[in-house]
Amino acid sequence: MKLQEAINLIEKAFPHSNMPQVWADLGCGGGTFTNALAHLLPDGSHIYAIDNRLQSFPKLLGNNVSIDFIKNDFATSDLNFSNINGILMTNSLHYIKDKATLINMLEKYMSEDKKFVIVEYDTIIANHWVPYPINFLGLKELFIELGYSKIIKLDEQNSIYGQGNLYSVAIGKTF
């Protein structure tokens, strides 16, 4: 995916603000969406880019957003940060079988105004690359059960991998 396509999928979740923010990108991979996030956050923001495989990032991306890469399995390890403004998960939630437990665990790292931005395949059909899929309806139901009241579908686009559509969603208790 190209940078502009990634930006287009998530940009509606980031209203223009001058206040620096701290985000975590869980399952960042090579960093396409980390870079997109850095272009959408205000100058002086910070991103923790987390992946279970070693990745290489410059110290600054996008709008002078600083990046710290952490090699870690976000699903099973304690993460060394707190009071973050939001969590970005792009094509990483479908690797988690018990999504509710993970989300509850991640909340301890977040500020009071919890915000998730998620990009996933809109399917319920599992395969080798998407072992625990969650379509938009399933994701919406999951977060409602966990007490979230704001679940907004941002965008969608065709998957180049034949998995159907990718959808993006912003989730919070308030906005």
TrEMBL record:
GO biological process terms, semicolon-separated: methylation
Question: What InterPro entries is this protein classified in?
Answer: Methyltranfer_dom, SAM-dependent_MTases_sf
Q: Does the keyword Lipoprotein apply?
A: no
Q: Which domain of life is it from?
A: Bacteria
GO molecular-function terms, A-Z? S-adenosylmethionine-dependent methyltransferase activity
Segments forming domain Methyltransferase: 25-122
Entry keyword set: Methyltransferase, Transferase
Q: Per its record, how is this protein called by name?
A: Methyltransferase family protein
Transport keyword on record: no
